[in-house]
Fold this sequence. Notes:
The chain has 93 residues and is α+β, with helices and mostly antiparallel strands. The protein has two domains: 1-32, no CATH class; 34-93, no CATH class. Helix content is 23%, strand content 31%. It has two helices and four strands; from the N terminus they run H-H-E-E-E-E. The protein has a four-stranded antiparallel sheet with strand order 1-2-3-4, with no helix packed on it. The model has no long low-confidence stretch (mean pLDDT 83).
Amino acid sequence: MKQSPNKGFRLAAHLQGLPEDIFATAEDLFRSTKCVEFVPLRGKKHPGIMIILDRKFSLWFFREDDHFTYDGFEIGDYSEWPERQQLVFDKIK
């Protein structure tokens, strides 16, 4: 793994049953992202979290028991939305 970490990660993903290109996909998504915001979704039955990338693209996750499941994505202008919401990590100093 020291010589070729990418091969090691691909092997680990394969052994875990993950898609072979999962790391490349994640890398493509986040490498060019300049701003990531985590906004809580306060649903009574299914609370969740929205991850906003560059205030233009959001990924939605809803809580089910002890984990979150992916619900979908939206594209739009989020330039003002987080300013009226408390962000998940606001209290971290």
